[in-house]
Amino acid sequence: MALTNIYKGIAFPFGASASSLPAAAVDDALIKDTLTQLVITGNGERVMRPELGSGAYSYVFESNDDLMAAAIRVAIANVIAKYEPRVIVQRIDVEKDTSDGKYQDTVVVTISYVVIATQQPDSVTVALTADQGVV
After folding, report:
1. Each residue of 10-27: pLDDT tens digit?
2. Where along the chain do its domains lie?
3. Are strands 120-129 and 87-97 parallel, antiparallel or unpaired?
4. Does domain 9-14+21-129 have CATH number 3.10.450.40?
5. Cβ neighbours for 97, distance < 8 A, ≥ 6 positions apart
6. Of 7, 17, 53, 56, which cross-links 23 as Cys (Cβ 3.0–4.6 Å)?
7. What is the dihedral of CA 27, 32, 38, 41, to 10 degrees?
8. pTM of the full predicted structure?
């Protein structure tokens, strides 16, 4: 039986709820939102926390090789270890997809993890496209 409402916070992307307050997220949704934010946040993007973020967007235009994937995995693993104590990362998969006609380069990151409080496995997938991030 899964526990509910262990974690409470503001949903991502930020928006208003029916009561005009910020939309809320709880438990698994909040953890997924937080992991997504850690992946898409660039190094130095947060004024008071310049070390927050993986800087993964900086790799979108890099060569599609094992070195690029390893660099992204290390950057993401480090930021999660530092800022997300609610999960244990099991695996980080990085794939580069150039087949989409709309985007020149897309890096797809899938993070598989276990929620410590519930011991439930889960995953989140984030697609980083060239037109979204600051390179």
Report:
1. 666 666 667 766 666 657
2. 9-14+21-129
3. unpaired
4. yes
5. 106, 107, 108
6. 17
7. -120
8. 0.79
